[in-house]
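Before the break, one more example. Copy the sequence into your notebook; we will annotate it together after we see the structure.
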Amino acid sequence: MPALERLMGTRVVADPAALDGARWPTSAIVLRTAPDEALVLGLVDSDVVSDRHAIVRPETGLVAVWRTTAETARALDRAASWTSPRTPGSFAQGAVAGLPVKLYFETDRVLWIVPEPFGAEFEARLG
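Here is what the structure looks like once it is written out:
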């Protein structure tokens, strides 16, 4: 199983309408974690949103690993008490095996994102 690696991202907190109209880079994966918050995989500048009060900061406290859709399905069926979307491009967040995770689904793989302090426990429970 691949090891967790530090995720380079940007947390953007802004008015929901500003996030809806943001000018994200075309290659960016943007995970809407709350109506007024997004996690961008990769680094972006503060000019992506029109909200002059927006908070745009590098996110340095997350680790991540890609797993196959089959591995993900088995882990979720075994260790999650909630149903997640599993279609490409979908995003979900919740507890899996008692740990907070964010999941980004692609066709053949899923990105598992975990707060860095939970990294070792994630590998012990779900590795």
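Residues 62-126 form one domain. The mean pLDDT is 94. Try to locate both features in your own notes.
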